[in-house]
Amino acid sequence: MTRKRRRLWILLACGLGLGTATALVLTAFSDNLVFFVSPSDIAKVGGNGRTVRLGGLVEAGSVQRGSDGASFRVTDGANSIAVRYNGILPDLFREGQGVVTLGILQPDGGFRASEVLAKHDETYMPKEVAEALKKSGQWKPEAGPAPAGGAWKKPGG
Amino acid sequence: MRLSGAVLPYLAAAALVLTVTGLGWGLFVSPADWQQGDAVRIMYVHVPCAWLASAGYTGLAVCSILSLIWRHPLADLAAVEIGPVGAGFTALCLATGSLWGKPMWGAWWVWDARLTSVLVLFFLYLGHVALVRAFDDPTRGYRAGAILALVGAVNLPIIKFSVDWWNTLHQPASIGLTGAPSMAPAMLWPLLIAALGYTLVFATIVTVRLRAAVMERRIRGLLMARAASESGA
Questions:
Q1: I want to staple A36 with a disulfide (CB 3.0 to 4.6 A). Which of A4, A55, A135, B130 is the partner?
Q2: Is residue B115 in a domain?
Q3: Residue B166 — left, alpha, or beta (φ > 0 → left; ψ -120 to 50 → alpha)?
Q4: Cβ of A11 and B36 within 8 Å?
Q5: Is A149 an interface residue toward B (CB < 8 Å)?
Q6: Assigned domain for B176 exists
Q7: What is the CATH number of the domain that holds B64?
């Protein structure tokens, strides 16, 4: 009995130590663990010529498609940055959609992207539900993410 | 052993029925997503696999605790048998996730926190599979494997909360224990049925493997006893 009890305590102590160590390491490195930075982060620290990933929502009404690419603004609500991209945009790209762009901040404050990834949110719904939400005025896809799931069913959905 | 033999056919049948129902419903009947279209159907394979990758590792960790503290012989064998099955489900999760990521995000793979932590989970499974078989004395293999499994268990909360703690390309969870799921019921039900079916498939495979391992051990014991009695006689 006592040996089992002792092994239990040793295991608990090891687990506690390991958990604390991991938590400290992850907290210390949390700046490096993020996949992308927001326009507000860039506004705070600047781009200093490094290649970074900029993430946010595509601002409504900002998309201009040209023959060799597109320009649009990425916003997080507080700040926004103009992005210029030559290449093929992903299928899910639209106004109000989350995107992550890889590129370099230019001296003029614009962002030159070499890669654009679409980031969809965790909301899944059939076309009919999306249409009903749009029709009833509860949700504009250009303006941001869809309302929470509990709110759908009441009108028409 | 006798109980597992009696339950096994029902377990296998339920697993088959639920998996076929969930997958058939999800892949052919359920509606397409408003923005992802038919690509959303990969979810009915990807999400249950991802859940089971984590759940399987939790089982592995529990077996390791039972093995290290109480030295339970069945827990040793169960840990050995869960390893390859969990690795398989994790590989399926990574593969389907990659197939889903290319058309939706525009990339097969990105090094964001969620994807990277699941890849680490896959390597932990592979490491466990290799380590428990690397010793001539199986008991030492069980001990080493159990320690590896428990050290790797810190990865489980990292996987779960990676999408909340850091900004990632992977979207946060749609379904939680609290709050309404952000998924239409017509898509949620087949997903839950498929998840239950996959869980039973996982349990069936592990049970079959575990029964085989127990029998193997018994046969080896009998053979050794006979060899001992023959050499003694």
A1: A55
A2: yes
A3: beta
A4: no
A5: yes
A6: no
A7: 1.20.120
Nearest chain B residue (CA) to A9:
B69
Task: Taking residues A10-37, report their average pLDDT.
Answer: 88
Nearest chain B residue (CA) to A118: B105
The residue ranges of chain B whose pLDDT is under 50 are none
| Homologous superfamily, domain A35-119 | Nucleic acid-binding proteins (2.40.50.140)
Class of residue B105 by CB neighbours under 10 A (exposed 0-12, middle 13-18, buried 19+): buried
Closest chain A C-alpha to B90 CA, distance in angstroms: 21
- Give the residue extent of every domain in chain A: 2-32, 35-119
Q: At residue B85, what are phi and psi to the nearest 5 degrees?
A: -65, -45
pLDDT single digits (tens) A72-93? 999 888 888 999 998 888 888 8
Q: Which domain holds residue B56?
A: 2-169+186-232
Q: Do B172 and A122 touch (CB under 8 A)?
A: yes
- Write out pLDDT tens, residues A33-42: 888 888 888 8
A1 at interface of B, judged by CB pairs closer than 8 A: no
Name which of B34, B166, B168 is nearest A125 (Cβ-Cβ): B34
Q: Is residue B180 part of a domain?
A: no
Residue A51: per-residue pLDDT? 86
How many CB atoms lie under 10 A from the CB of residue B220?
10
- Beta strand segments in B31-160, E: none
| Count of domains observed in chain B | 1
Q: What is the ipTM of this complex?
A: 0.79
- Give the Cα separation of A57 and B72 in Å (integer): 53
- Is the minimum CB–CB distance between A8 and chain B shorter than 8 Å? yes
pTM of the model: 0.87
